[in-house]
Amino acid sequence: MKPLNLITLLLFLTASAWALTRSESSVRQIQKSYYSIISPFVKSGSAMETKIRAFDEELEHSTSLSSKLHLAETEIIKLSTEIKHLRTLEKENVQLRAALEFKKRSPFRVIAAKIIRRKPSSWWETAHIDRGENHEISEMLAVIAAEGLVGKVDRPDDETSSVILLTDESCQVSAQVAGTHEFGILSGQRAQNGDNPMLRLRYLSRDSNAKEGQAVITTGKGNLFEKGIALGTITHVTRGPLYTEAQVKPAVNFADLETVFVLKK
Asked: Which range among 79-83, 105-109, 217-221, 227-231 shows the weakest confidence by mean pLDDT?
């Protein structure tokens, strides 16, 4: 045994023997002194134990809250998905009601169809619909929306068809400035960008009185498009040495086409 440990042991035994030889009152006084010395440590330990217990309870409570929060977030995601689905159904129902109403009041014989595909590279040129030869669709039939002319059927398959849009440069329509005797050729413009494609109305008379805000409609000439279908509204007029040209805003929102109608002959 090391000398320091031996000395400590001897001191402890001596102190114990001394305490045992003291009177009862002396022993109590020693006990009192002892407890007064260790009391702060006992209280400190008790307080620390209380804090540890409180921390454990708080940790357990936090874990429970975290679990409840996770369940709530899962429920929110589920409800958001359901709301989106319901909004989609509501939108489709509104479109269906509008289509049925248009079909009922339309002076033309029409077949309702939905746009099923449009390529970003040819967004303003072509679209595909869910109707084809099995639905009495054939080439060159006019395609319209509730607002006006959309284009014409290009290549029908059994169940689907491609449509050349009015905003395509190759789709040319005999047009008239409504309420006047001004006639011209309306077509799309090359390299259209953005969400607002414009149309080009050419070959109006050199001294044409066409002006901004006037409506442009189909003439019915050529037996391709029925007379009186809305094409758009004039936004700008340019008078040249040979003829007048006008820029036209389409009547149809080509950026957001969904439901269209094919005119039956």
From this structure: 105-109
Residues 265, 240, single domain; the answer is yes
| Whole-Å CA distances, 86 to 73, 98, 184, 245 | 20, 18, 46, 47
Instruction: Say if residue 138 is in the same domain as residue 80.
Output: no
What whole-number distance in Å separates Cα of residue 22 and Cα of residue 17?
9
Alpha-carbon radius of gyration of the chain: 44
Q: What percent of the chain has pLDDT over 70?
A: 64
Range of 38's domain? 24-105
> Does one domain contain both 74 and 196?
no
DSSP state of 103: H
The closest of 218, 196, 222, 211 to 244, measured between CA atoms, is 211
Whether 121 maps to a domain, the answer reads yes
**What residue type is 151 in one-letter code?**
G
Rounded to two decimals, what is the model's pTM? 0.64
Q: Are 207 and 228 in contact (CB under 8 A)?
A: no
Please check whether residue 3 lies inside any domain of the structure. Answer: no
Q: How many domains does the chain have?
A: 2
Q: Are 152 and 144 in contact (CB under 8 A)?
A: no
Alpha carbons 13 and 34: distance in angstroms, whole number: 17
